[in-house]
Amino acid sequence: MKKFTIAAVFFILIVLTHSPLFSQQCHRYTISWDPVTDPNVEEVCIYRSRDNFNNPVLIATVDPAVTEYVDNSTLQTGVLYCYALKSANSSGSYSAFSGIVTGVTLDESSSPSWQEMCRIDSVVVIDDTSCTIYWSTSSPATGFLVCRESQSFDGDTTEVSVTPSQQHSEVLTGLQPNRSYVVKAVSYSDDETTVVLSAEFPFITEIEGDINFVLSDSELELEEGGSAQLLLSLDSEPLSDVEVSVRKVSGDTTLSIYSGSQITFGSGNWESGEVIEVAADEDIDCDDGAATFVIEAEDGSGIPTVFFTAGVSDNDETPQHEVVQSPAVTVYPQPFNPDEGSLRLVNLPERGELHIYNLTGKRVWETSWSGTDNTEWDGMNTSNTGVSSGRYFMVVKDLANNSIEKKAILVVR
After folding, report:
1. How does pLDDT run across 200-251, given as a tens digit for each residue?
2. What is the rounded distance in angstroms from the CA atom of residue 80 to the CA atom of residue 102?
3. Which of 154, 192, 172, 210 is nearest to 18 (CA)?
């Protein structure tokens, strides 16, 4: 890969590191740089921040002979991560920051402007074992595709393109007939300072069969905390019973199959059909969401796979009580590993309450205090069991139930 000058000391670039389980939520970034030639340098310091580089955090120090670092942190989708380097000598003096490199993984909930950075535009099926993927980037870029069967976490990658462009296409071959796949694009900016992973795009490798699924609705809409249904049937009677599975392949974590995930079609119900119900859990954010679901018949049935989508409208309202203006609450360390100590909150109101929620909106822990401006959380839930790794939300309130602060917490064990 080409390396480029961004500072007097460092030549730095960012690439995507493939994880054995390559999915929308499983990725790592590798930051690489040319060897340090100054004999007075004793260590290289790697800094990271989110969305901008106003508050960089030191995440690692390495020997000057090392020329790359893999960020193994639990990285979130829809977040722009920024990295830069400093060098330190034996007297404790530090160089200025190097230039900045960035990485972001998009998902279906990312804003349209972000989606334009790197997106799959369309999939054109050539036959039941091959298709053409068309994808685009907002600026000239190189990149490659990652394609996997929707029920698998292992993905195959195409060759990295060598000529920067905004419009890209790639023919995928060797696919299995009548299978559901998801594909994503990985783009590198021309100067290799930015890597962007597109949202996943689902497709199938066969259009019609002797028997086909019939859906009463392919685009469900529901409210948070509610559910929606569609009727699934067949257009012809099968010769024998057919087992059908329904599952989510990508999208909002609050959406799931409530009933109808496993269906058997036979002579008694192929035409009348069966109900599939999708439910949306409550959460504490104020964002809408969407998910894609796949309907698959057992191998050998000859019934082509189909997709349907579900969109959820958020029902959380802006709090009716006043949001009190106060100095920002400080929360550290982030990410938080309960095995290494407690999460500390400082600059709190003199009296108040702290509530911790998981992504489904369930309150996992709470506490109150009086006569102090700080408190701690040890990573245990209300049942005194350690919470699992993942993203949580904290809400700080005063005794009048006014919201003081809302922040995300990343737990990493």
Report:
1. 888 888 655 678 899 999 889 998 888 999 999 999 999 899 999 999 887 7
2. 7
3. 154
The CB density around residue 323, as the number of other CB atoms within 10 Å, is: 12
Q: Where are the extended beta strands (E) located within 150-261?
A: 156-157, 165-172, 180-189, 194-197, 201-204, 213-215, 219-223, 227-234, 242-251, 255-259
Q: What predicted TM-score, i.e. pTM, was given to this entire model? A: 0.55
Residue 26 or residue 182, greater confidence: 182
| Residues in CB range of 398: below 8 A, 6 or more apart | 324, 349, 351, 352, 353, 404
pLDDT at 371 over 50: yes
Instruction: Evaluate if residue 270 carries a pLDDT over 90.
Output: yes
Domains detected in the chain: 12-105 (2.60.40.10), 112-190+197-204 (2.60.40.10), 213-313 (2.60.40.10), 330-411 (2.60.40.4070)
CA 322 – CA 182 distance, rounded (Å): 45
Instruction: Write down the mean pLDDT value for the chain.
Output: 81
pLDDT tens profile 90-104: 888 888 888 888 888
